Amino acid sequence: KTHRSFVKLSFILFLCRSFSESSDKGWFRSLFVHKVDARKDAHSNLLSKKETSNLYKIQFHNIKPECLEAYNTLEAEVQKRLHQDQDYPCEVVGSWNTWYGEQDQAVHIWRYRGGYPALTECLTKLNNNKEYLEFRKERAKMLISRRNQLLLEFSFWNEPLPRPGPNIYEMRTYYLKPGTMIEWGNHWARAIKYRQENNEAVGGFFSQIGDLYVVHHLWAYENLQSREDTRNTAWQKEGWDANVYYTVPLIRSMESRIMIPTKSSPLQ
Q1: Per the database record, which ranges form the NIPSNAP domain (predicted)?
Q2: pLDDT grade, residue 31 (50/70/90)?
Q3: Domain architecture of the chain: domains with CATH
Q4: What is the pLDDT of residues 222-245, one digit of tens each?
């Protein structure tokens, strides 16, 4: 009897294996395989603002410590000229030096109104501008390294606009697991309402070119104590803890920079 039962069980397992291996659409495999609905649009189109065609560029420049002051002076002069020249479809959103985080670092965010065509037009004109090329040569002598990313802004965040100071700024950067950007956006579309009472939310961006699945949240505070108080207040609001709980598993790693605006920065 035991032998007959073993034979029957072996035959059943054989049939199951045959069905499951015969086709990816076999009835047995379909019981266990999770089906993912196909997306009808790119994530960038689902998450970014439809009413604008803004493209952003963020630059991270690591500067030789002895050159930081000269670098800031040179960068401010070039930014001013580009702002005044209407022939260039770009503008500086903000410029900072990192206070806590990676030291001797400058961070710049540029806006290109008109998207990729505006970026291409601007780069073409700059590459034919002898004065700008000389600036780049001079700047290169002051740098240790540099990197950049092209970004889009989340539809549910504020557009970063000039503001008076004095303020300190925090850039919180999240490196997400691939495929989780939509889920991140869905949670933060609700979470952002908990962080706007004190006007601290400046801008939210996600990468398009460069390191991918990267999110940057930019916040403004009067000082470090104001930052602490504002963040603690958020935890007292019903619903904030749930948003944190559901977004943490989406993150591979994260970092925080506390930044001081340069004298020429529109965000003070």
Answers
A1: 169-266
A2: very low
A3: 51-261 (3.30.70.100)
A4: 999 999 999 999 999 888 999 899
